[in-house]
Amino acid sequence: MTIHAGLFKLDMTDHYAVLGFSLAANPQQVRKRYLGIARQLHPDSLREASDQQKRLASELLSKWVNPAYEILSQEKAAAEYRILLKIKQKQLVEKPDLLSLLLTTGSAATQLMQAQNVEADYAAAVQALAAEQFSDLTQVKTVINQLSELNAVYLMRRGAAQKSAEQSGQATSSLSSGVASSVPSGSPEKVNAAKTRAAISSQIRAQSGIVDSYLNRAQEFEAQADYSRAILELREVINSHPKSAPCHAHLASLYLKSGQATMAKIHAKQALTLDPANALAQTVQAKLGVQTADASKVSTKAAKAGAKQGGNQGGNQGEPKKGGLLSGLFGGKKR
User: Fold this and answer.
1) Locations of Gly residues compositional bias (predicted)?
2) Which value, to the nearest 10 degrees, does the dihedral of the CA atoms of residues 137, 138, 144, 145 take?
């Protein structure tokens, strides 16, 4: 079986395409998807199939499905694989023309190249293909190719959006400083200044949309109690939008929920530095303050108890000690 499209053409095994799994989906769903595929390809489900179909099912399961699941289900291996995806994403963003040559004309991936709502269109396309991916074993290769093309386009579009946001963020300050604060009404300078302000507003709205998409995905993972994936989403967007108070505040909340008080404190403080009125960051700080106070009380009680116990022991130094496990085995006078 030869895979020849999408990320595979970029010399990368697309484990997500093999399992029919969205790059934006919850990793906790990998096992559920894998078990469903394994049942479809199991000999008991293919009793009436031809010998050729059984051999094909066995090859798919052993050479493609099982290895893909092994990578995506193990935390360390999955993390390393995501790093490779980041590298490929950078290559795709730098050479988008290369991707265009790899796509099948009229495919779902080609449509995704021009889609306005990338996230929604990508999720819908993956779901539609994955639903029938293993229903016809002779067409599995074709569907995997289509999924891999979709994944490649999704990576490129998402990476390009991040790069554009970073560049526009850097340009906004310089453009703003270059706009004349006072020019004659109706003059060419006034018209150009208005156009520049409109461009800046458009850039700001684009950045806001990107931040909102990350926040929405983080909230979805948070609703599933998948705090680690939600944290990854927000850390990623903060890399390109370090001055987003909502992102820092939400990240602080997630760190607090996952028991990482120090990181929660850092990001809550950063959020309030950027926006002193941020309610979520204020709530996190308040909870951290309560936890610190409780910990201090516990520590004080423990110290008092220790001091009291030490005093009792000091007052009984002249009395012979009784028993104890080791003294019972080895101590005492011989009679």
Assistant:
1) 308-317, 325-335
2) 180
Q: Which of 287, 301, 276 is nearest to 254 (CA)?
A: 287
Q: How far apart are CA 311 and CA 113, in angstroms?
A: 76
Q: Provide the domain limits for residue 255.
A: 203-300
Q: Percentage of the chain surpassing pLDDT 70?
A: 69
Q: What does the chain come to in residues?
A: 335
DSSP structural state of residue 114: T
- Give the number of other Cβ atoms within 10 Å of residue 152's Cβ: 29
Q: Judge contact between 168 and 196, C-beta under 8 A.
A: no
Predicted pLDDT at 174: 54
Residues 147 and 240 in one domain: no
Quote the Cα angle for 28-33-34, to 5°. Answer: 100
Residue 206 clears pLDDT 50, i.e. is over it: no
Residue type, 134: F
Based on the fold, state whether residues 53 and 155 are members of the same structural domain: yes
Tens digits of per-residue pLDDT, 236-277?
778 767 888 899 999 999 999 999 999 999 999 999 998 899
Q: What is residue 58's predicted lDDT score, i.e. its pLDDT?
A: 94
On whether both 132 and 233 belong to a single domain, the answer is: no
* Structure confidence at residue 330 (pLDDT): 34
Torsion, Cα 80 36 137 8, to 10 degrees, reads: -10
27 CB burial (10 A radius; 0-12, 13-18, 19+): middle
Amino acid at 216: N
Structural domains of the chain, count: 2
Cα 251 from Cα 256, distance rounded (Å): 9
Examine residue 65 and state whether it is found in any structural domain, yes or no.
Answer: yes
User: ∠ at Cα 72 (127, 259), nearest 5°?
Assistant: 105
* 153-167, 267-281, 290-304, 305-319: which is most confident: 267-281
